[in-house]
Structures are given as C-alpha cells and as structure tokens.
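Please check the following.

. . .
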Amino acid sequence: MGKKMPGKCRVCRYARRSASELRKAEQEMRLHSAIMKNMSEAVLLATVKGPNIV
C-alpha cells in the first residue's frame, strides 16, 4: 500500500496511532478502495448509459 491516498480519506489520518488501529485502518482502507472502485464504475456506467440505471 505505497500509494498516497487523497486528503479526503479519513482513514490515513488515524492510521498512525496504534498497531491495532492500524490493522483496523488497513481493513477500512481496503473497504474504502473497493467502494471507491465500485463508485467510479457506477459513475462510469451512469455517464455512458444514462442516469436511470443507478
């Protein structure tokens, strides 16, 4: 996970605390990136096919 996340992502901010929180943050980061990927795909679909399928 060497990529820098944009400042909007709140996970990075508390990822520096403790080891247990870091593990929790890592899981949230994975979830977050999966959600972002799905969102961008949904937005892509919406822009290609029109707003009524979302």
Remarks:
- The two ends are 30 Å apart (CA to CA).
- The longest helix spans residues 19-49.
- The chain has two helices and no strands.
- The helical segments are 11-14, 19-49.
